[in-house]
Amino acid sequence: MRHFRKKASGSLMAIVFWTLASLITLLPIYWMFAVSAKSRVQLFGSPSFVISSFFTENYTITLSDPAFQRYMINSIVIATSNALLVTALALLATYALSRYKLPGKENLFFWTITNRMAPPAVFLLPLFLLYTQVFVVADVRLFDTRIGLILLYCVFNLPFAIWTLRGVIDGIPKELDEAAFVDGANTWQVLTQVILPLAKPGLAVTGILTWVFAWNEYLFAATLTSVHARTITTGLAEFVTVTGTNWGRMAATAMLTLVPALLVLGLAQRHIVAGLTFGAVKE
């Protein structure tokens, strides 16, 4: 009886804790939604968490704004292209690090992850000079281009993707590779027909996290773009002007930027838990 009460008390405390943690996490999102649903007059009145009337103009004006549409398309193209490219390159790199006896491969693996440790601001000036002065052919340059941001995000997201996939590939028995080689398969066939299907959960998690990192990135997008390749995160700053801040439209735009991320997470949700735990336990 005492054991049952102790177990029930522990379960109740866990429920209370996670309920409070969820409320604390969701509170800023709800407040942002509440701000997006109010007019300027309501916002500068007494603040309230209750939405008495929904001010739809913040959303209709934003959705019909050509600049918002261009920023959203840029973000989707850049984040998706970066996620696909990084995941493919990371799969090739981790397969080589896992299966081949490369000299100093552990040092190489550690060196790749150290690239994520440096503050991004350190690279701003060198990258700006490279994009505006060095990587220039005639009138073509990487500054303010989608491909420029895609390649740049690869530099910072690829080490993380390799680190994430390393445990996934190591968790796949090498005996499966050897059996495929005995049956006459080449390295490419082993990678695509044996490793790829088994590593799908890990690849899904890696792709999702890489996509989210590219989607949320602000510093490089704000510095290395001006008009054509601006992303939705940099577009949020345009609501802050010398005449004031349009909090309603800014909040509405921020809420709309959550929709693609929620869709991506929802579609790949079943792979997330499996991918995060894949390779964690070895027999």
TrEMBL record:
Its main location: membrane. It holds the Pfam family BPD_transp_1. PROSITE patterns: ABC_TM1. Residues 72-268 form the ABC transmembrane type-1 domain. InterPro entries: BP-dep_ABC_trans_perm, MetI-like, MetI-like_sf. The chain crosses the membrane at residues 12-31, 73-97, 117-138, 150-169, 247-268. It comes from Microvirga makkahensis. This is ABC transporter permease subunit. Coiled coil: none annotated.
